[in-house]
Design a protein that fits this description.
Length: 149
C-alpha cells in the first residue's frame, strides 16, 4: 500500500468512527425519548423531552457535517499526482508534513507524522496551488515546501 492510500484509509477510518459515534448517540436519544414516561411533575417531563429534542437536533447537525466531510473525502483520487498542491496532495515542508483531505488530526505512517487538514483551513489555503521550493509564512513561521506527492 502506498503512502497516499494509507493516509486516505486512515482518514476514512477516522470519519467512519465519528459517524458510528454520532449514530449511537442518536439511537440513545431516540430510546430515551421513547422510554420517557409522563411523570406527575408534568413540567419536568416536558423539560426533559425538550432537552432530548435539542440533543437530537445537535446530533443530526453533526451527522450532516460528517456526511459532508465524507463526501469531500470520497472526491479525492489517490492515484493523481501533481506538482501543484491540491485536494489529496501530500506536502512535505521544513516545518511539518500535511495531507490535504479532511481535518483528522495527526496521522502516522511508517514513523512519519502527517497532519490531515481540510482544504478550508488557513494553512491549507496558503499551501494550495503552491509547488516544491515555494516559501510560506504562516503566522510568524517561515517555511519551505520540500516535496509534493
Amino acid at each position: 500500500m502506498n503512502l497516499k492510500e494509507e493516509l486516505y484509509n486512515q482518514c476514512l477510518v477516522f470519519i467512519d468512527n465519528r459517524l458510528i459515534t454520532v449514530q449511537n448517540t442518536m439511537q440513545e436519544i431516540q430510546e430515551s425519548l421513547l422510554s420517557e414516561t409522563k411523570s406527575s411533575a408534568g413540567d419536568k417531563h416536558e423539560t426533559g423531552r425538550a432537552m432530548l429534542q435539542l440533543e437530537r437536533e445537535k446530533a443530526g447537525n453533526q451527522l450532516a457535517e460528517i456526511n459532508k466531510t465524507k463526501a469531500n473525502l470520497v472526491k479525492i483520487n489517490i492515484e493523481t499526482t501533481s506538482q501543484k498542491i491540491h485536494l489529496g496532495s501530500i506536502v512535505y515542508t521544513t516545518q511539518a508534513n500535511y495531507f490535504i483531505a479532511i481535518s483528522a488530526g495527526i496521522l502516522t505512517v511508517k514513523n512519519e507524522v502527517f497532519y490531515a487538514i481540510s482544504p478550508s483551513t488557513p494553512i491549507a489555503q496558503l499551501l494550495l496551488s503552491k509547488t516544491k521550493g515555494d516559501k510560506i509564512t504562516f503566522r510568524t513561521n517561515n517555511f519551505s515546501i520540500t516535496k509534493v506527492i
